[in-house]
Amino acid sequence: MKTLNDERQQVLQQHQQERSKCLVYTRVMGYHRPVESFNIGKQGEHKERTLFCEQHGKAAI
Description:
- By secondary structure, this protein is of the alpha+beta class.
- It is built from two helices and two strands, in the order αββα.
- It has a two-stranded antiparallel ribbon.
């Protein structure tokens, strides 16, 4: 029985020729900068970041 990860790897291999590199940008000191230009330590910090999602509920009065 194939796992989900095995299926993903198979799909990625089948479409390897169609894939293109994607640059990820992040905001640093008021301007946007590609993550790949960071040094190894900053790249590690970027991978450890978590996405913040604000609750969109009504405030209690």
